[in-house]
User: Fold this.
Amino acid sequence: MQNDQENKTGLARLGYIWNDWISTFIILALLLMTLLIGTGEMIHGQMLRMGERLYGDQTTGMQYSFLRAEPEKPSCDRHPNIDAQVQEQMKANAADEFASMFGAASEADVRASLLAAQQQCEEKYQFYDKAMKHLEAHPSIRTYRKVETTFFGIFKLGSENQTVILLVMVLFASITASLRYHHIGLRAPKTKIDFRVYSALMVAGNALLSYSVVSQYHSVLNSGVEVAGKTAVLYWLWIALFVSLTIISIFQFIFIPKTAQPKGNFGLALLSVPLYAFMSLVTGIVFTFFMDYPMGQGIYLGILVEFSGIFLNLALFIWAGMLLTQTRVMDLFLNILRPWNLAPETLTWLILIAAAIPTAYTGASGIFVIAAGAIIYKEVWNSGARRQYALAVSAMSGSLGVVIRPCLLVILISMLDSRHVTSTELFDHGIYVFWLTAFIFLGVSLILAEEKFRVNSPKIAVPGMLRACVPVIPYVIIGFAVVMFYKLA
Assistant:
């Protein structure tokens, strides 16, 4: 590994530093910020309650909320000369040219007003003295206050700039995906023709998006409405994103990877083009050449950013799916089914039903495929299924869960079209779609099954299943504890 790094050229080493260090660190920091935003309100509320329990004093009436900022010494005179102030005010009233019109205050009224002001000043001093005495008795309160207010400041900054965080995350992730040819497509580019077609359509798609967001930005500038600082930052991030991707695609079109195979097929090359490129090309051509409205793509991108909170949560769920691939959780849960020696079709159906639960809570089937697809493929194939069947099962292992509560994808769809449908209606119908699809899949699988239905005797399977449940118990307890913590916090 070390020799590989030493043999890399300067450009390759720069790409390695960007992909494996800079981009990774920034995305990790933004994901942690997103996690902080999602849980920050609850955590900050707990910190305030803890501060009250630690530093509040019911006997003196001192609360932690009074001490979140350093008490300021009052600037008023604590022991004023009331008689002198009364005489001074009376002289000022006598010299007032409007006094005869509205009536001058009597000496008793002036004195009462000054005494009330003195009383308010005395109360301020008493509170200040009591607060300073409380701070001296609890010196650690300043340290705790610093931690609590700093956390609140970070949480507030992140909450007010979720759209910026999302765009910065998309910027770095998109650049990294483009440099590594990791955009989602039907097949990976392998031949020189694949890479040429891939890069050419990426150049066209990114160029159309760049033109769209630049046109939208100029339209806003020429509208006569002042552009707020945050709005300008969002426009510049969009421009930087698509211009950078266009430049990268041009570079990739000129310089084909040395590992590319010779020759190739144009039809297969089209399958290598990312879905993102096709979508940007179609929408860009329609808006720019047919509707003469080039800023249309940029406007729809702005609408998507309005739901930045949901997309940031999806980023967290994808991260969770990637982390789940590094654990043995799926393997441990499948150990519970293995003693039954189920037929491939029955095993597949149970896996699809069970996989719907994590899919519903993460919001996207792709996350579960990332986390468990390889294990499911191996398990179904080992049970005697065909390779194509095992691949199909692993690909659709998380699909059923996208229609049941509380899938974020359904909530997002209902928010985009809230005039015609609500999330409750979608979830109510989704449960019927879920069971209908599940039983149709089971029926077709059993009809086309190459093997007879099989299942081990309960006398053999139950003891093995119970033994397999033991390693799963800690994960169940941890999951239950986390859910209850967030519900009760």
Observations:
- Residues 1-7 have pLDDT under 50 and may be disordered.
